């Protein structure tokens, strides 16, 4: 029996790279991105500078909206993590984004 587990990500990040809008074999719009995050968080009672870069992908209307955004623009992204069949690192699947 499988137990449902949460896989939800909320991340403020800027668009560091954005690919061209493409279409899946099923005709669904898709776009690949690289996101960069930088912040200060508290860890073990001390402030820590955090930087992270990650690959992301979006499909459908979200992909079409992202294709119109400027490089370097800052957003709050929401989605889930999944490792592609041919990859080693998780990719953020963007389900929504809004101005941070």
Automatic annotation (TrEMBL):
Keywords: DNA replication, DNA-binding, Primosome. This is Replication restart protein PriB. It comes from Variovorax robiniae. SUPFAM superfamilies: Nucleic acid-binding proteins. The lineage of its organism: Bacteria, Pseudomonadati, Pseudomonadota, Betaproteobacteria, Burkholderiales. Involved in the restart of stalled replication forks, which reloads the replicative helicase on sites other than the origin of replication; the PriA-PriB pathway is the major replication restart pathway. During primosome assembly it facilitates complex formation between PriA and DnaT on DNA; stabilizes PriA on DNA. Stimulates the DNA unwinding activity of PriA helicase. PROSITE patterns: SSB. Homodimer. Interacts with PriA and DnaT. Component of the replication restart primosome. Primosome assembly occurs via a 'hand-off' mechanism. PriA binds to replication forks, subsequently PriB then DnaT bind; DnaT then displaces ssDNA to generate the helicase loading substrate. The keyword DNA-binding applies.
């Amino acid at each position: 029996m499988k137990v449902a587990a949460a896989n939800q990500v909320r991340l403020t990040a800027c668009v560091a790279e954005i690919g061209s809008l493409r279409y899946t074999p099923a005709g669904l719009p898709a776009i690949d991105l690289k996101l960069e995050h930088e912040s200060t968080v508290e860890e073990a009672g001390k402030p820590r500078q955090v930087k992270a870069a990650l690959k992301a992908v979006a499909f459908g209307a979200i992909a079409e909206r992202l294709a119109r955004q400027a490089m370097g623009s800052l957003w709050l992204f929401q989605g889930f993590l999944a490792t592609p069949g041919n990859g080693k690192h998780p990719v953020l699947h963007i389900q929504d984004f809004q101005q941070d």
